[in-house]
Amino acid sequence: MVSTSDIRKGLCIKFNNDIYKIIEFLHVKPGKGPAFVRTKLKSVTSGKVLDNTFSAGHKIEDIRVETNKFQYLYNEGDDYNFMNIDDFNQIVVDKRAIENPGLMKEGETVSISINTEDGLPLSVDMPASVILEVIHAEPGIKGNTATNTTKPATVETGLKINVPLFINEGDKIKVDTVKGNYQERIKE
Predict the structure, then answer these.
(1) Residue 69 has what pLDDT?
(2) Where exactly does CATH 2.30.30.30 map onto the chain?
């Protein structure tokens, strides 16, 4: 059991007969009345996000989690296969446990949180950004690059991302894994 003062991003808890991961939290101390903690919880099993408020000092049942580095191998439908970098054991993770599966390319290293009680994977945390190659983009028109307009481009994983007009096929771009948007062009 943990208290609301122990709440942190990434903590896995048992709540409403399900396992949730805390993705956002805010400790609030109003001028009048008791303190409380506003949280945004994501269900590990269904992927549903809900907002909840805990009063200060409220006891929460936490789940013991072990986090290891895994390498993404391949996917079969909604099942994604990963290999533990340390002992080479392979595990299968459902697509709903992955934040942005369209940004993962084969060989990518991720952190996977595993419930120590039953050995089931809870969540997959990708690096803050990934570098992907653009495989299809309409050519930009000369003189149109002065404004902040964007165009759709397809990256090597098959995902469509809006990019600036100066991005062409074959360019490597850095993509934010949280929001799934373009950050910068990588020069080689």
Answers:
(1) 92
(2) 2-62
